[in-house]
Amino acid sequence: MQVALKIWRFDAVAGERKLVDYEFDAPEWVTLLDCLDIVKDQIDGTLAYRKSCRMMICGSCGMRMDGAAVLACKTRMYDIAQSGHVPVISAMGNMPIVKDLVTDMQPFWGKIRAMSPWLEPGYADPGQKEHIVSEDEMNVIHKEALCIMCGCCVSECNSMEADPEFLGPAALAKGMRFVGDARDTATVERLQTYSGEHGIWDCTRCYFCTERCPKGVDPRDAIAKLGAESIKVGIDRDMGAKHAKWFVT
Question: Most CB within 10 Å of its CB: which of 33, 141, 151, 224?
Answer without folding.
Answer: 151
